[in-house]
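Annotated sample (chain length 73).
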Amino acid sequence: MIEYYFYLNLSYNKCMDYYHGRYSSVQVVEDNGKTIRFAASHLRPYITSIGIRGRFRLLLTPENKFIRLERIA
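Output written by the structure step:
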């Protein structure tokens, strides 16, 4: 299993662009500087009235297939 940790801070309006499909993927920079891209649909459970703010862990298989996205703080 591969783990990536990153912080995400998106406004509510930006989240709605992802939620409504304007963007199909999200690109983040993980703690060690590597750029990671994953499907925007994985963010939906974390959208609140202020958007998305927090620290996350992305889990992938060794073949880079999505396992889950978790808010950790």
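Annotation: Strands lie at 2-10, 25-29, 35-39, 52-60, 66-71.
Annotation: The two ends are 21 Å apart (CA to CA).
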